[in-house]
Each structure stands twice: as C-alpha cells, then as structure tokens.
Amino acid sequence: MRQTILLLCCFLFLSNILQAQISGAVKGYVTDTINRSNLTNASVSLLRAQDSILLKFTRAKENGYFELNNIKSGKFILLVSYPKYADFVDQFSVDSTKLIKDYGKINLADKGRLLSEIIIKGNRAAMKIKGDTLEFDPKAFKIEPNAKVEDLIKQFPGIQIDKDGKITAQGETVTKVLVDGEEFFGDDPTLVTKNLRADMVDKVQLYDKKSDQAAFTGIDDGQKTKTLNVKLKEDKKNGHFGKVELGGGTDNFYKGQAMFNKFWDKKKLAAYGILGNTGQVGLGWGDKDKYGQNSYQVSDDGGINFSNNGNDEFESWDGQFNGEGIPVAQTGGIHFDNKWNNDKESINVNYKIGDIKLSGNRNDINQQNLSSSSIYNTSDKSFEKNMTKNKIDLAYEIKIDTTLTLKLNVDGLFKNSNSSDTEMRKGTDEQGNQLNNLKQTNTNDVDDQTFNINTLLTKRLKKTGRTLSLNLNQSSTNSKSDGYLNSRAEFFTPSVISPDSTKVVDQNKVNNITNTAFKSNLIYTEPLSKSLTLILNYGFNISNGKSDRKSFNQSTDGNYNVLDSVFSNNYQLDQTINQIGAIFNYKKNKTVFSFGSKFSGVNFKQYNVYTDEYFTRKFVNYMPQINYQYNFKQREVLGLSYNGNTDQPTLEQIQPIRNNQNQLNTILGNPDLDPSFRNNFRGSYYSYKVLSNQYFSVNAMYNFTLNPIISNVVTNDRGESISQFVNLKDKATTGYFLNTNFGKTIKAIDMNAGIGLSANKNVNYNYINTKLNQTKNSSYSFNLNLSKYKEKKYNFNASFGPTYNVANASINENSDSDGWGFNGNFWSSIELPFKLEISTDGNYQYNGKTQVIQESFERFIWNASITKKFFKTDNLKVSITGRDLLNQNIGFNRSAFNGNINQSTYTTIQRYFMFSVSWDFSKMGGGEIKQN
C-alpha cells in the first residue's frame, strides 16, 4: 500500500514538472517612442499564429507592464494597440527551450509623428467593419506615384473594376462615388476614380447610401444606392492638382481630356473636359434611374409616372454607351462645394454639358418556342443616334440651430436626342419556309425637360431620440417628340414564294407628355425605452399628368395631316395617395432589429379625351419590412432582412395605348387584373482578419411573387402574335442570387489569392397558345483571383473561371440553351530601367454551343502599352498603346425570356494604335507630387 501511494505521489510530482515545462509566459512594458512615458491600459492580445484566433487578452498596468501566463507550447502572435499609436505585431514561439518571452520595453510610435525611417513590425488592418459600412485603409495597399483612386480600389478585397471603369462590390454595381461624403460631379463615378490621386486618400468607405430622411430617422424607405465614399487626408485639402492628356491613333481614333481641381480651406472647385471616339472616356451620366421612364408604372407607394417611353416611342435612348456601336463624345462640367459659418452652412453645385453620337449595326437571332414547333427570326439593323444634354444640380444645407436642419436640393435637365434606324426582319419555320418579312425605318427627335426641388426639414426634440422630419418634393417633366414610322410587313403561306397579305404603316408620330407631382412625408420618432424606438410616418402625394400622342397618315398632297384615331390618344391622369406606416426599432449592444409596415391608399382617375371615357381605380399597397443586424465584433457582421411589396398592374397592362410599332405583335388590355405580392429576403455576412489579410463575405437574395402578372401570347402559324396580361393563380415566380468571396495572403509566395462563387436563378411563367410555359434562367460561376505586387518591379492581377448557363422553356423540348462558358481577365505592369514601363491587360470570353445555338463564341481582347516617364516625380508620361491587338472585339449577348432564346452580335470598337502624352500636375499641402 505504501509503495502504491509513493508511486502515485511520484507520478503527480513528475506530471507537475512536465506541466511546468510546457507552460510559458510573455511579458513586457508598453511605452511611448518619443518621451518613453508608460501607456496605461494599452490592449495586449495573444493570438494563435495558425489562424489568428484570440487566446488571451489583458491591458497594461499603470507602469505599462503586462504579463500573460499559462501559455502552452506553440507559435503565437503578440498584438499591442493603443489609440492614435501604430500597432506592434510580432510572432514568437513557446517550447521546452524557451518558456518565457520577455519583450522588455515595447515602444509604440505616435501615428502623427511617424518618420519615414521608422519601421513598424506587423500588418496593417486593410479593412474594418463599422455597422453596415466597410472601411478600407489605403495605407495597407501599394500605391505607386501618380496612381489614381481606380488603381487603389482595384486592390480591395471583394471589389472589381472592369476595363470601362464599372465598379462591382460583393456582386452589386457601385453607382455613386462621393468625396468626403459630398457629390463630386454627381452621377459619374469615373470622374472620381479616374482623376483623383490615390495618395490623397485617407480611407474609402463602402455602404448602401440611404435617403437623407431615412438616414436621419432610421426608417427604411427602400431608397438605397451602393456607394463608395472617398475621404481625403487633411493635408491634401489645400492646393491644386490636375491632368492633361492628348492622343491620336490609327483609323482616325483620338482622345483628349483635361481636369483641374483646386481645394482650399473647405472649398473644392473642379472642372473637366473630355472628347474622343475610343470608348475609353467616362460617358456615364447616371440619369437613367432618376429620370428613367417606366411607362405608366405604378410604384410601391402608389406613384404613377407618365413617361416619354410609351409604345409609340421609337426605342428610348438614355445617352449611355454600353459597348454597342462606335461613339463620338464631347462632355464637360464644373463643380463647386463649400462649408462656412462654422460648418453650419454648405453648398454643392454641379453643371454638366455633353454630346454623344453613336452609330453601328446589329444582328439578332431569335427562337420563338410554341407548343408544338418553333419560329426562327433573324434581324439586321443599322442605327445612328445623337444626344445633347445640359444638367445642373444644387444642394444647400443649413443648421439653423443644434436641433434644426434644413436641406434643399434642386436639379434640372434639358435634353435633345434624335435617332434613326433601319431594320430588316425575317421569320421562318423549322423547315426553313418563310413565314413573314418586315422592313422598317424609324426616325425620331425628342426634347425633354425635367425639374425637381426637394426640401427636408429635420428637428431633434428635447427628449433624446425624439425627432420630427418633413420631406417635401415638387417635380415636373415635359417631353415633346416628333418622328416618322415607315413599316411594311409581308406574310407568307408555307411553300408559297409570294406573300399572301401585306400590312403597311407610313405615319408621323407626334407626342406631348407632361407630368407634375407633389410628394410629402412626415416622420415622427418616439423612444419607448433606452433600446426601443417607435417610428411613425404619414405621406400625402398628388399627381397630374397629360399624355397626348398623335399618329398622322399621309394625305394625297404628301403631307402627314390625316389623324389616325386608332393609334392616337390623349390621356389625362389625376391621382392622390395617402400613406401611413409604423416601424419599431430595437438597438442594444451588438443587435439592431426593426420591424413594421407601411400602407398606401391610391385613388386615381384616367380620362381618355378622344373617346370621352373614364377609367378609375382604387387600391391599397401593403409594404411590411423586417431588418436584423448582429455585430459579432468590429470586423464581423451578419445582416438579414425581409421586405414585402404589393405590385399593382401598370396602366398599359390594364388599358394599353394602341400601337403599331411592331406589326408582328398586338397587345390587348385586361381591366380585370389583380395586384401581385412580391416577397424579398436578403442576407449578408462579412468577416475580416487583419493579420492574415483574410476576408470572407456572403451576399444572398431570394424572392417569390404570389399571384404574378404574366403574359398570355397566342401566335399563329405565320408568326403574328396577340398578347394580353393575366394573373397566374396557382404558381409563384421565383428568383435567387448568391455571391460569396474568400481570400487571404499566402505568405509562402507573398501573393494575395481569392475565390468567388456566384449563382442566380429565375423561374418565370407565361401562356403560349393557351399552354402554361415555365422558363428557367440560371447562371453559375467560379472565379479564382490572384495578385502580386513588387515595389518598383511589377504588378500583376488575374481573375478567371468557368461559367455554366441554363436557359430552357418547358413548352418545347428543343428549347434548351444550356452550355458552358469561361471568362478571364488580367492586367499587369513591369517597370524597366530608364523609367520605362510595359503594361498589358486582357479579357477572354467563351460561350459554348447549345441545343438552340449551334455555334460557339470566343474572343480574346488584348491591350498593351509601353510608357516612358519623365522628371523626378514621374508626372509626365509618353505612351504608345495598342487596343484589341488581335482584332477580336465583336459585340455579343445571349438571353432567354418567356420561352424565347435570343443571341445578338453588334459592331463595336476594334483594333487601333495610339500615341498619347499625359501630364499630371499637383501642389497639395504645400508641396509638389512626391515619390512614394
């Protein structure tokens, strides 16, 4: 017994010795670099080196001393942080040979006094998550001399920029770029990203920008815009900078741009001018959403807008260049903003003028699936378009006192556009027999005027959290158009060469459309407790519109003065809307949760002047919403939301405006249509680990619509269709979207690597010759991203991966258009001696053949340039550039909708060579451009 007890004691003693041998500690003192003072309460974190998981945490004592004990053997990372000081990061090990890591004094450097010769060990946090905002730190990325903001954000995880400057973040398009939270030329993001210098940037924020009233009250009004906010360094807000570039090339290609910026005190003045026919300049006006035309669409809150894009309009054009055709553009603008009176007042003014001409050709192939057969349509089209725009907007804000703020926004648009196109269309059956033939010419001239004034008054009441806000909006639009339609449609009996019937249209179309609207929204917030707030709102809207559309036939004397009453109409619309809503908002610790609903009662009356007929309708829109957000920690957040909306039928679906623009398709109205209800679920998750530069994001959306409004199409054997909209009672249309990105730095090869997965699917229905057809459209893609940068040596970035597309219609077993594809992009630059730089970029696209499309499509667009830099600051550059070196840039698009499979090819900019000279000049913060 004694021997047993003795052995047990020896075992316990040896165990304690062994345990002591593998239990280590880390200690030290945290002090200031300059004056050696102790940094009390500095945070000290111990992380596992393998995955950066936090193991232990403490704070420095009054004398700056810290100690972490009971550390098992392994590899660790020590992170020491203190506000306004640079972080200290170091990796160490604990094993049997070294149980205690004594750092002695750890001297942290004041960020404001960092000198170029000071070297800080460790990584800098590239990204932070603050609520619903992602914040990127430019200091964690490589910035070359004279690099632009575009070059900086290309390196941000989860963000891509295509060759035209379009920005995509987590799978969504960024439509607005702000500077210090302010509009900078308003609506063209490329004017910021392609012209502001990257070394001026202090931080870049990515978020969904809410309306001013929603941001103030916390009630979600559904008005969100994916936004990047570029915040400038304080010492870069005084001085001037700019750029001048000129270039000429083969085949009469040319480009030129100039931009000047002057920042002083709290003022910003900027002006720019762009001209060229290369398609490389920023042409995005971004007015499509704001001034877009939706053809009598009833919105979620009951609003109905007249438009200049009714069915009698010949192909509306918003002035954007999307790669189709050859553009010639001239644009310019001026911007000014200022704050004064101790920042109580501010003003932001933008004016832009521009002209764009576009010409090109287009070829379309279409398979129209019927229940027992298919009709094959081919179309050849040539077009010329021209648009001139003048746009001005002004924003003024005054803080009347500490609780009362007034914001005023005014904008106006004056636009003239003219277009002409010629089209030849042919339809055949499965045996190749001709069914129809269409020859059509359109010309049109449109003058548009739009004016908006918006006022927002916000008041914070005595009780914390109690607020009152009033939003008033007055708008007016006027559109006048004058055009000619000349169309000849021939119809054939199978196996007969000559047409057996012909329809001819030769008309002058004159439209005059006006609309005035007043909208108001009053919101009151009442705190029910420290964490719960009630938000109430009431809105009143009134709108008056007139739409006078006339079609004139040609008289015997050759003039177009014979009114065609069948294809002419004069509508007047008066409507009133009352909206109420209640939202509960809960916010405590890491949780934000809100729920509630809005209701709107709509009452409108439509009057047809020509027929002396009235059409009235009353309905209620129901809009529930739920939002949930949980912040696990500073760089990890989860968000979930649900929104429900009643979708009322459009007036064109109920009582369509008769048109003969497309003689192969006649639309009938259905006054018995019921509203549908759309359910939308969204979810997102973001996380980021600083030390390994590891990020992970997931964005997902799922929607389904009950009682959807679908088309009912009856097509005869010669390709003539009659369509009408109906409700689908027993099925729901559905759709989902999923995008996920993962990436990190691979230390072994010093390269950033990431993968992206994306999937989306839509299931829609329509009736084809009385049979219900289900159309499925899906796409799945995988992307691998690689990037590496060696200072003053090279820069490389590549993204590539396969895609799989699904497009089929249940009505016809021969309608499947499933197929594989592949997409790849790369850009790279190499620095050579004598300040020479070679850069190149490329885009590869492959679309495989399908059951419907029997030919595959492949193109590789390769660009390259060689640049010589001059002067110490490298701000003068001479370049020789080759665009589309392999001459493969052919416009291409495939799509499927309502049982129809479509493929389009079109002319676009192809190979050219250009010689250009660019000069960047700057004097910011009291000095010239400095080499990084």
Automatic annotation (TrEMBL):
Protein name: Outer membrane beta-barrel protein
Cross-referenced SUPFAM superfamilies: Carboxypeptidase regulatory domain-like, Porins
Listed InterPro entries: CarboxyPept-like_regulatory, OMP_b-brl_3
Limits of the Outer membrane protein beta-barrel domain: 460-773
Region spans: Disordered: 417-444
Signal peptide: 1-20
Keywords annotated in UniProt: Signal
Biased composition (Low complexity): 433-444
Pfam families: OMP_b-brl_3
Organism: Flavobacterium piscisymbiosum
